[in-house]
Amino acid sequence: MTDFANPYQAQIEQLEAKIQENNALLADEELKTLAEAELEKLEKQKKTLQKAADDYEKSLEEQEQAATDPTTQSAAILEIRAGAGGDEAKIWAADLLRMYMRYAQNCGLKIKIIDDLVIKISGKHSLALPQIKDNEIDKKAEAQTKSFFAYQLLKQEAGVHRVQRIPTTETQGRIHTSTASVAVLPEIKNNPIKVKDEDLEWEFMRSGGAGGQSVNKTSSAVRLTHKPSGISVRVSQERKQLQNRQIALELLQAQLWEIEEQKKLAKLDNARAAIGRNMRAEKIRTYNYPQNRVTDHRINTSWYQLENILEGDLDDVLGETKGLLNVE
Q: Is the entire prediction scored with pTM above 0.90?
């Protein structure tokens, strides 16, 4: 950690000296009552200052992390795409979107809808991270609480989510398997990825769905294509085209940044590189309705509260996944 003197430390040391002096007076019957009252006051002051000192140290640590990793304090952009399974896969993609939105709401995080099945989640939330021993959760050890900004909180959710259930349209009662992929991108301020104007192709169109006349009757929706990579993003939520253009450019930069990071990770021979940053094609989790089971295949762990999880009760899932994958 950067060697900055904690501005509260000198005051804490002064209080500790006074506490020692008053402790010595407890043996004096005439002064004992006064000493006890003074000790109570001093302990309260020390507790307040100690919390301020801890918060200061924590703030310095976060600043250092942000300087070395631009995603440390980033919002998260979630993009969900239907995979194999036809109409049921589209329904499943919408169910996943609802799950993450409910989770964000439960945690007091901010949600911004960018486009169909694309949202931005921002804010900070605390998770209880289990202690890991021999690559297993130590049931006897107390979990450690740690706060995460949205991208760090959700980044390990990227990958293919598989569902096994009987679709509402199924007349034979057969269980179908469908998939949807989740991409998690960081919203990076002062993104180092720059794009050339000549590499961009802009298209403008009317937005669909709810939003009023100003959204549906003007060409406010934007589709931006990066010609060298073929990446295309669409933004339709804002009423003004200029706002959607800015959001589209930021989303494109985030995707290009992700590609560059994956190239770097591919060169690293360690566990973090093996996990990857997004791994869009990796099957990470199965939601089995008949067995009321959610299984994360990366850590070989299951939870038997499927309905609660789909209602946004994700803290245990995220905490255990982070602990076993070591992706704090």
A: no
